[in-house]
Amino acid sequence: MKFNIEEKFSVNADYDTVFEFFTKPENMFPCIPGAELIKTNEDGSFEGKVKAKVGPTTLTYKGIMQYDEIKKEDGYMKLSGRGKDITGGGTAKATIESWIKENNGQIDVIVKVEADITGRVIQFGRGMIEQIARQMFKDFSACAKQVLESKKKVSSGEEGQSQENYQNPTVQQKELNVISLVLRTFASILREFFSKLAGKK
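The structure corresponding to this sequence follows.
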């Protein structure tokens, strides 16, 4: 099943800070519900896994991603990845393009995802999966916004060398509970429906 989503959020942080955040998987993974960074390879690719709880069942996707393009001067990056549900045999492939743009003192982040999935998760249907993906992005963007706007950099290293990591003690990674996401998505759809209905009166 193929699907596409495009989302956007804005953050009050400087351009370099935002760009660096999105080009280092160790910065992003803590903001992805249910995700864990396993390792970064010498060729720049990185391996990770995502656990998703669907009722009593837990799906575990394990895969590899890489940056195909990084153009800081254009505020553009492109990632591609593939993975497999090691608990059920489903697969997932995705291409993620991101644009980072300065806009009146803040930074706009635009993300476009093209994905293709197989396996048990498609039982939800394309429409619901797209809505779930959008809700996941909202959770990710809220976390990323909190981390970036805190601008708290912890310096560490040896022999006077400094390595900056973005951390915020109030940010805790959440388990990815698909049923919870479905309910929140359904509530969001209802709010949007009644809002449009009220606007027509």
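The domain at 2-200 is CATH 3.30.530.20 (Alpha-D-Glucose-1,6-Bisphosphate; Chain A, domain 4).
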